[in-house]
Amino acid sequence: MAAEIIDGKAFAASVREKVGAQVATLVQDHGLTPGLAVVLLGDDPASQVYVRNKGKQTREVGMHSVEHRLPESTSEEDLLKLIDALNNDPAIHGILVQLPLPEHLNSDLVINAIDPAKDVDGFHISNVGLLGTGQKSMVPCTPLGCLMMLRDYHGSLSGLNAVVVGRSNIVGKPMAQLLLGDSCTVTIAHSRTKDLPSVVRGADIVIAAVGRPQMIPGAWIKPGATVIDVGINRIPKEDGKTRLVGDVEFDSAVEVAGAITPVPGGVGPMTIACLLANTLTACCRANGLPEPE
Ligand code: NDP
Question: Where does NADP(+) bind (predicted)?
Answer without folding.
Answer: 166-168, 232
